[in-house]
Amino acid sequence: MILSFHIEYRTSWGEEVRVLGSILELGNNQPGKAIPLQTVDGIHWTLDADIQAPENGIVQYSYHIYRDGKDTRTEWNSLPRTLYVSADKKKVYRLQDCWKNLPEQQYFYTSAFTESLLAHPERNAAPKSHKKGLLIKAYAPCIDNDHCLGICGNQKVLGDWDADKAVLMSDANFPEWQVEVDASKISFPLEYKFILYNKKERRAVAWENNPNRYMADPQIGVNETLVIGDRYVYFALPDWKGAGVAVPIFSLRSEKSFGVGDFGDLKQMIDWAVLTRQKAVQILPINDTTMTHTWTDSYPYNSISIYAFHPMYADLKQMGTLKDKKAMAEFNKRQKELNALPTVDYEAVNQTKWEFFRLIYKQEGEQVLASDAFRKFFENNKEWLQPYAVFSYLRDAYKTPNFREWPKFTEYKAEEIEKLCQPESADYPHIAIYFFIQFHLHLQLLAATEHARANGVVLKGDIPIGISRNSVEAWTEPYYFNLNGQAGAPPDDFSVNGQNWGFPTYNWDVMEKDGYSWWMKRFRKMSEYFDAYRIDHILGFFRIWEIPMHAVHGLLGQFVPALPMTREEIEGYGMAFREDFFTKPYIHEYFLGQMFGPHTDYVKQTFIEPTETWEIYRMRPEFDTQRKVEAYFAGKTDEDSIWIRDGLYALISDVLFVPDREDPHKFHPRIGVQHDYIYRALNDWEKAAFNRLYDQYYYHRHNEFWREQAMKKLPQLTQSTRMLVCGEDLGMIPDCVAWVMNDLRILSLEIQRMPKDPSQEFGHPDWYPYRSVCTISTHDMSTLRGWWEEDFQQTQRYYNTMLGHYGAAPAVATPELCEQVVRNHLYSNSILCILSLQDWMAMDGKWRNPNVQEERINVPANPRHYWRYRMHLTLEQLMKAESLNEKIKGLIEQTGRKG
């Protein structure tokens, strides 16, 4: 059998086109074995490959550009080119291909659409082959299961332009459609169009929005099939739009949950989405965060493993029933007590669940670990599962997650860990319980995923940008991280001092050397359970805000990587460079009283000392960093101590420039310094010069540089799976972020109270880009009702300008006002409108939480926030909340968001 490849690609000098495929003759999908094509003009490339017909009758392939033996460019390959071949050994397939770039509507080709929203669960057979065939292939993802693609044209075999007699195409490789026409029955030239056909009504409902497609006689030989591919088909139909709900799993409450939401409850939340015609359920990260077994582990973005799930999400009922009836009765009693609490009691829930795990493991463990299903799971996940289980065991045995302080195993050695994981090892029972729990969590989440897909609902996960410095990854792969820095975020609406997450930053240079395999594996694992994901703080792939270890707040950070400024550059803006004045804390007599009030003398005597300059002070050496101050005030929680401590933090960050982390002779303007005393100490000329420098540095200087950084990483990461990618692009956004997200077809996040245009106070939902997710509030913000009561003047402006009402705004957000805000968002231009459960419920006075303060999930300004919000209704009550559910269903229908 001959596969004759033909592709037009204008190469540069030194480049060549190669083809890589799923069969031995095309390299068996091994990149080093791609087969070169030939050319005479550097534009038209061909190859005749003599192949054995594969047993399954399928050949998949893709084109690549090579230079000096290296793959420098790959065409879009999320959906490999697929050819169904006959068993005829003498058959010739002539493949006329075009290079595939990332489609403009790439989101429709993701698994969110092809496996869930517009899935075709029962596919047609592959197209029937002909002795002399014309195989036409076309991409059309926006076709649901009740419709199919057809071809109608100027030939009897294509219906003679009668759309109802069109030849229907196979969805065997959906979202690509294929049909093979008997070429002996075609009298060329051929003209045709694609049509949309309703299978139930058996009629054509739309013609493609294009002039006729034309083909001159291609001289198809006997026993030859000409394959025409890479057609994209569009119909003049309304844009697809959907709605969804965002809720952390720990916040779910059902009658059977154990004081915290679990993977069993997630299935019920999906049922509610189906009932109300919602198309997406978005959750927060679900990885194990257990470090101290206290409530401080409740922070879901600080995980000890990027793979392992948190044991508290296990649905105990699915794990089995204890044969000890007395013990089971005690657990049932505890379940009722914990489930009656208004919020999550993190410590009690985890302690109780662990008691159950130990008992059920003792009862069922041996049998489960001997099962074929477990063995398969273990083999597929051994690479992360063993280190995680051993880490968790040693953390508890040595009573600290900080592996640097362990008496043994401080340095990870794979062979030592392998020994501990052998069944004959004395430690094995303590380690294998983690295998047992993770296996159950895997099965339970997979069941929820399959339930979502079967019901046309997308499950959307969350990939945190950071990892904990006391985590399995930091222990096993420390070379991937800079453990001497802290990741965070510059100041924004959430936090005036910036955020210090405490995570190490990434060593991107090392990650680049192995093709970002650490990230690729992480994304691929996630795609087993999710069809869409949110990249937390997508800006971290352009640059990360790195804070020195001696700082507590985020103000003394700098972007990494960045282009720091030399002394000469700074002076080029018209500022005489005074290193000590610009880089050391500016402490002047005149403002000490304003900052410290009655404590001023105590501060002068204890923490600062005078300099040679009159009325100017400096920090005493024992208090010259924020960490030293933090240590001095550790455990002091009275108001006065906090007042003094925070004032000292502010003094230490009162600098105009921060030295570069690698070159102390280069500098970064300190973020947000315009609000501080050192800035006020400048004269008007210097302020104007500094403002020009600051604006150029933060908003223009790095655009191309940061775009290059992101384009090194994000293309292959976002295309390593078929999940729908959504970026959390909030905060201080350089222009290059929008360029890259647009190029890679990543959905942006649009929030009305955080508009991307700084000249607007509020965003306009009807101006949002189609390629976006819009929402009213996120887990890091107050809910709609909470926000309404925070700043009355702002609320008043919103009430008058955005909602179009006259007069004074009500003091609280009434159900009617909430409904108006929700409706406006549902009418937005965004492809997805995903609202928090609290904001959906705000529309119904009967069902919403009477206490608005209980609805807040996180306060980013507080790094020690307790994440414990739970919905005040049970999921069973929510399913029966008819007035609310009908309202949501009606709004989704009315605003055209029923998918």
What does this structure look like?
By secondary structure, this protein is α/β, with parallel strands linked by helices. The chain folds into 4 domains: 231 residues, Immunoglobulins (Immunoglobulin-like); 222 residues, TIM Barrel (Alpha-Beta Barrel); 142 residues, no CATH class; 124 residues, no CATH class. The protein contains 27 helices and 36 strands. The strands form 7 sheets. The protein has an 8-stranded mixed sheet, with no helix packed on it. Strand 31 and strand 32 form a beta hairpin. It is globular and about 100 Å long. The two termini are 44 Å apart. The mean pLDDT is 95.
In short:
Helices cover 32% and strands 20% of the residues. The protein has 899 residues and is an alpha/beta fold.
Shape: globular
**CATH fold name of the largest domain, please?**
Immunoglobulin-like
What's the CATH superfamily of the largest domain, by name?
Answer: Immunoglobulins
Number of strands: 36
The CATH class designation of the largest domain is Mainly Beta
Per CATH, the architecture of the largest domain is: Sandwich
Structural class based on helices, strands and sheet pairing: alpha/beta
Number of individual domains: 4
Distance between the termini: 44 Å
Strand order of the largest sheet: 4-5-1-9-18-10-14-13
Radius of gyration, taken over Cα atoms and rounded to an integer in Å: 31 Å
Overall pLDDT metric: 95
Give the helix proportion (percent range). Answer: 25-40%
Low-confidence stretches: none
Biggest β-sheet, characterized?
Answer: 8 strands, mixed
